[in-house]
């Protein structure tokens, strides 16, 4: 656990060697927890002697972390939280950031609010099923007019939930919501364990978290922030059947971040780390290996001309 400056305690999981040349920080999505990344954590651990240090944490108001106040249920606060986690758990060395959905937006907020720190520390990015334009492209897989009506209802409902406190009465009705969640969050394939893990994460999220973060998620605009990040190993993944952050979201991120490799996973939905873990893990491992090679070259001593002549 880590106690943040405002007193909220975050549940943090740390794996991998303390002296690893690279640290990976994993940020999960809205109404989920760090277990979203369990397949990727396992894949990173299988890198053997080249395994990075891995930090995965539950966002405030999610998982086993402490509840958030209503005024702190914002992406801006999550960006500041990420900065604290990195300072405490990865005070030196190159960092690779991976974010799913709201986690990707958290990374963008960290970059926006702490640009010098981000530039000095972050050496690689993985953005999965996320957006830099709020709900601009979100249609829920519905016709535009119907999607607009649904968004109005969702926004009003989120405002009510945000005022409902840190309790979870919706757990009782989750089984009835399963078909709708299956359609909204997954594509052609959905393993039973992936569905159960997704529902457990949602069941743990208090009503305040479900409703409170909705406003900043819907309004965030960070394409300019991405455009200023410069060149680094980066990848953007999205499912072709993602109903929350469709391929148009990844395309706009790619235009702002031209160094990124973009992959549209056929038939996949929004929960890519659980739905298509092999593809997500492969992309993350490629970035970690590239960053590790760059770090190794940076540590390698450069021979001076005089030393080279003496050696000859």
List the topology elements:
Elements: E1 2-3, E2 9-10, E3 12-15, E4 23-27, H1 38-45, E5 53-57, H2 75-89, E6 95-100, H3 102-113, H4 115-121, E7 122-128, H5 144-162, H6 174-185, H7 192-204, H8 207-212, H9 214-219, H10 223-227, E8 234-239, H11 247-256, E9 260-265, H12 272-275, H13 277-299, H14 305-311
Parallel strand pairs: 4-5, 4-6, 6-7, 7-8, 8-9
Antiparallel strand pairs: 1-2, 3-5
Helix pairs in contact: 1-13, 2-3, 3-4
Pfam families: Abhydrolase_6
GO molecular function, one term: hydrolase activity
Organism: Actinoplanes sandaracinus
Tell me about this structure:
Helix content is 47%, strand content 14%. Strand 4, helix 1 (38-45) and strand 5 form a beta-alpha-beta unit. The protein has a seven-stranded mixed beta sheet, sandwiched between helices. The chain has a two-stranded antiparallel sheet with strand order 1-2. With 312 residues, it is α/β, with parallel strands linked by helices. The model is unreliable at 302-312 (pLDDT under 50). The protein has one domain (2-311): Rossmann fold, CATH 3.40.50.1820.
Q: What keywords describe this structure?
A:
312 residues; alpha/beta; 7-stranded mixed β-sheet; two-stranded antiparallel sheet; 47% helix; disordered C terminus; Epox_hydrolase-like; hydrolase activity; AB_hydrolase_sf
Short summary:
By secondary structure, the protein is an alpha/beta fold. The chain is 47% helix and 14% strand.
